[in-house]
Design goal:
The chain has one helix and four strands. It is mainly beta and 73 residues long. It has one domain: RNA polymerase II/Efflux pump adaptor protein, barrel-sandwich hybrid domain (OB fold (Dihydrolipoamide Acetyltransferase, E2P)). The chain has a four-stranded antiparallel sheet. A hairpin with a 3-residue loop joins β1 and β2. The chain is globular, with a radius of gyration of 15 Å.
């Protein structure tokens, strides 16, 4: 598979929550960082996603937002 996105992270499905339309997929990267993605239920089923399965998280965005911590008054 060749893709244009430069941010490709290899990980493992840590948690999978299937809803009536969408699925929430938590991917754990080496070192413990987690990436969460919402995909269609159909996509999750057609890929045979399950906890422990190896997957790639692909991030393609035109904007990257920066925030700063909110300090209490």
């Amino acid at each position: 598979m060749k893709i244009s996105a430069r941010n490709v992270f290899k990980g493992t499905v840590k948690q999978l929550t299937i809803g009536s339309v969408n699925a929430e997929v938590v991917v754990e990267l080496p070192g413990g960082t987690e990436i969460v993605s919402i995909i269609t239920k159909h996509s999750a089923e057609s890929m045979g996603l399950a906890v422990g399965k190896g997957v790639y998280a692909v991030v393609k965005a035109s904007d990257v937002l920066i925030g700063e911590p909110h300090e209490p008054h």
